[in-house]
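Why this split exists: single-chain examples teach little about how molecules sit against one another. For that reason, every record in the complexes split bundles all components of an assembly together and asks for one structure covering all of them. Below is a record exactly as it appears in the raw files.
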Amino acid sequence: MSPEATRQHDLTRLSAADLASTLASREVSSLEVTEAHLDRIHAVDGDVRAFLHVAAEGARAAARAVDARRAAGETLGALAGVPIAIKDVLCTLDMPSTAGSRILQGWVPPYDATVVRKLRDADLIPLGKTNMDEFAMGSSTEHSAYGPTHNPWDLDRIPGGSGGGSAAAVAAFEAPLALGSDTGGSIRQPAAVTGSVGMKPTYGGVSRYGAIALASSLDQVGPVSRTVLDAALLHDVIGGHDPRDSTSLKDTWPSFAAAARAGQQNLSLKGLKVGVVTELGGDGFQAGVTQRFQEALELLTSAGAEVVEVSTPSFEYAIAAYYLILPAEASSNLAKFDSVRFGLRVNPTGGGTVEDVMSATREAGFGPEVKRRIILGTYALSAGYYDAYYGSAQKVRTLIQRDFARVFADVDVLVSPSAPTTAFKLGEKLDDPLSMYLNDLTTIPANLAGVPGISLPVGLAPEDGLPVGIQFMAPARADARLYSVGATLEALLEDRWGHTLLSQAPDLAPQEMFASEEGAV
Amino acid sequence: MNKAELMDYDRALELFEPVLGFEVHVELNTKTKMFSDAPNFFGGEPNTNVTPVDLGLPGSLPVVNEQAVKYSISLGLALGCSIAPSSRFARKNYFYPDLAKNYQISQFDEPIAFGGSVEVELPDGRLFTVPIERAHMEEDAGKLTHVGGATGRIQGAEYSLVDYNRAGVPLVEIVTDIIYGAEYDAPELAKAYVSTIRDIVVSLGISDAKMERGNLRCDANISLRRRTAPGEPPAKLGTRTETKNVNSLRSVERAIRYEIQRQAAILEGGGTIIQETRHWHEDTGQTSAGRPKSDADDYRYFPEPDLLPVEPSAELIEELRAALPEAPAIRRRRLKADWGFTDLEFQDVVNSGLLNEIIETTAAGASAQSARKWWTGEIARVANARGVDASTLVSPLHVSELVALVDAGTLTDRLARQVLEGVIEGEGTPDEVVASRGLAVVSDDGALIAAIDDALASQPDVLAKIRDGKVQAAGAVIGAVMKAMKGQADAARVRELVLERANA
């Protein structure tokens, strides 16, 4: 490796926090950092396929602008000049926003999502848009209309979903940070299976304006990163009330980065009561997952935490309720894709009525998983079935919220494995939707209750050498607690290992032949 | 159905009882749209007054217009409704290209206002209480223009254009309970009901309420129930039709009458009424079949997850209640008493639609009777002749000034009509017109006496008759004097002076 290549390699290995301080001290320019990441993308993304669109020129221009302002002595934000990858579910003025769907191929929105605007206002450098299951429906990115993303730990395996592109980009050192969206685990499960960190904030903590809706009452935008502190720094940038999102909370939030730093520095968990959710573990969980999870609990205990078992019986019905509420809302949210105002239009041969055009477009533009859920949701909302399906599911949701409230009266955080298994093989569950749905067993309850959840790596499963994640959940609005506890456990684990987990990931062979042009890869 | 096939109205009423129900959509005149910050204005270049929210672009989210909520509460209160401490928006799902999201944000099982009633005055002055089931908030759809067909309807069109400027305009839909007992007056009741809703929203200042512009739209539901002999149980309710596109008060009345006659003819001929929407055609005075409408239409309503429940505070509701203007029916009763009008006079005023002009004219100092006389008389006549709205011709202030000039004897009624004409022509205030046209009554007795003496001298036979006590003979002299004075004299004063001079 040439010295220049080494320097670039090192820049992509830095955490966002370290990059930010290196940038602030002017040891390196944002343009150099951006070029390093673009080079890395060009080198490895042919294999990983995390990105649907790389905005190389836009990123360079943004980086130059930040460098100029820094040179002019302006005070910049904590993450100014740091590159970031953006899940394709988020609307971006200068990049196509397809949500992984054929029906939105090439669509460039006339506006930025609020979180994207906040990134730009805070001088982060958008690198491009990341792959995802179509309209965020899936746990593997295999439902992307543009082909799957591959897990950097093993290219034959899934990177999780729906936000597999964001997690893989971060895990493959193509970006230090990424934005994701989490409706039933789409941030946390990909983070778990790629050895990265993913946080689903409290519902309403981050604006949904400009996030292409899957299920409005469950969707939440959040950070993906390689460290807990980095996630917290990004959360500080994107969080807060947005008058354009009626469901966004008007709370004043504490600094999440400060909470993470406090957790890194004070490694004692004395006084913290941790509840292990009986229903989110045990039978059906991979042995290596359970093993690493148990070791993490021991580490928490040794740091002074009190670890107890808690039971939340209603969680047994969470998946059933989720797969009624989500398709119901999705069937309505996806009705707007009708070819009239934007996106794909398919004219049936021989012409036809507007209904014929809408039908032909939706037939050609939506993939099988999307159609499956639209049909499910339409059925669940139909007259005569509403009470039995949608109505009952909402009652289960209430019971789950009560279970959370009951256990949170006794414990500070809840804990479970982030996913039942490590990354499965591409294609393994594609023909078995139910088995795919069960993968979200652990993450769904937090969405149904609107509480925050974070996933961070706790090691590699002995049997397959793949990352295992632990999930912490806290009461609504207690996001800071998750950053604090998460940062402590992360520090304890890295002290024990002597390195970060991701530093053990295979170094993907650079591909010199990879196209370097602007645009889709 | 052509006119000849309709059943005679009186005969229809003998056989059937009309059962009514109305859905009135009121467009609110808020500054911005129901769920976006686009100005609440349509017309102009198509698709220029739209935001991502109005176009239903992916990722966009609605935000409730608080002013629209306040207006809706005020309207609910004015309709005697209870205001829900918590009400929710719901999605009404159906595919139609004028509906950007392919669902309409409306309210379903939790409307903001429910359970009220409104007093409606029939043309003969009787009051009829119309029960109000609910009033709920929703957004308007875009506007479709069907091009290439003969009718302008979607059937037969080559293509259709969509203008989303109207998409998202705030609406309140007022739904009545089933209305029984209107009987023979059903068409008049329909007109009076819509007219009352219009008066209410105008008095609240929450809508421009112009039916011809679609600010106020009425869908009229009607069914017929066959009458049964005394002692027999009542027949079941008939199948209803919903007549749409009724965009004037007169049309509401005509459409109901037509539907009663049409349905009666079908039922009496052994046919059945199809549950459907019907389109009113102003030109032919008929309705035509629209789309079949079933109670089982499945809109897959569910609570709108993008919006929080609407929870107005009790303080806000009371504040809005305290600010309510007098209900139009009560206000009318009070005005009629205050003004001392006969039933006929008052009905005349109400039917002329000039109530507000008369109120303002009296407020400016004129007597109610004078104000009534001018507005429903000369001004209405000119307006009618010119085919314009009387209120656009002259201001209440100028009318009151005109009345004052008459009361002071400066103008006769005849002169006052000329002054009015000058004011209407834009020649200035009544005082200015009097001056510029030189129209004041000649009140100088000297000038009058000279003219009277001339007239008496030229008509000695008349003078003799007056002196003989035949006072009515004075008319000929008075006429000559008025002619000589070019009408600018007070005839009563002339008469006094004629008798005085003749007997001098």
